[in-house]
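A favour, since you know our structure tokens better than I do. Just paste the record in under my message, thanks.
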Amino acid sequence: VTVTAPTIATQGRTVGAGLHQSTGFQLAVSTHGGVTVKVKSSNPSILQLAANSTTPGADSILIVVPNGSSSVSYYVQGVEGATGSPTVTVSAAGFTDGSATMTIVTPGVVLGGLSSTSTVGAADDPFYAWIGYPSGNSVNSQAIRPGGVPVTVTFNTTNTSVGLLTDGSISGSTVTAIIPVGDDNSPTSVAAGGVAHDPVGVGTATITAVSGSLVMPAAATQVVTINP
């Protein structure tokens, strides 16, 4: 008779630095009598772990899995300013360890909610920026991790004779908004701390979102046309 330990299947993820993403592991059997599972990062200076979406990260976490359960979720968090491919190891007594590679990359920021056309004198058009790991022309959105750092986004327009950017107190070619901890986007209204485009003249303008060294995919830039 050959007796082998049940396995633990794990899931890899791509995460932006300073952001977080849910993932999970699967125990091969659920009739284990209740087991404590340890999830550990191979490099906590790049990748940290949390049992839920509201807890700051740590180098390892313990998760109690009750008898009858086998599928468990947790969160992986990219450390601000760090990139790399650390490994997460999942271990429990009586099980063969599982592991997966987590890829931490520089996040990207893009525009959202901005209309591509409007007319002179129309109501201000509120828009926002959102953040995540770069994917093609845009990003896969991920929220800023608990205990992380809010991200300030600067919005610019190339043509103030066509439209002004406003945050409710400042109107001009440049305004800023903040993506707060726990969110993946800046506020979606001026009243809540967001920004808007005020169409004042006929023509076209290019509006961009930029934040420090964050990646700017194509969707970080949008051409807006204002008609009579």
